[in-house]
Amino acid sequence: MKNEQYKYSEITSKIIGCAMTVHNTLGSGFQEVIYQRALEIEFSFAGLYFKREFEMPIMYRDVQIGTRRVDFLVEDNISVEIKAISHLDDTNLAQGLNYLEAYNLEVGLLINFGEQSLKFKRLLNKKYKV
């Protein structure tokens, strides 16, 4: 495995820790926006630099064809997508990976607060261009 896969592991671990704190405090059952607001507070306490609902360009052949808001862009490098659904499926995973490719970000997290236990997936963009 390449070292690049671990380049952001400290930050993603910190993000997941913040999400666990939020989930342990609130549990499941709230709308996504409630978890976003709580996570924003935890990120601040953890000293993470982030932008919430940051509008990112969607590129196709180096031409901007639209925009999409990422739930969080952390440390200008990590996309964090929040869900509050009964379970994550392949569609959610594909969406997260597609966003990474469209944004040309190397790493992302897909976090679901809707289950009894917090669920998360670390995402790696294999098409990332430096």
UniProtKB/TrEMBL annotation:
<dbReference type="Pfam" id="PF13366">
    <property type="entry name" value="PDDEXK_3"/>
</dbReference>
<protein>
    <submittedName>
        <fullName>GxxExxY protein</fullName>
    </submittedName>
</protein>
<dbReference type="InterPro" id="IPR026350">
    <property type="entry name" value="GxxExxY"/>
</dbReference>
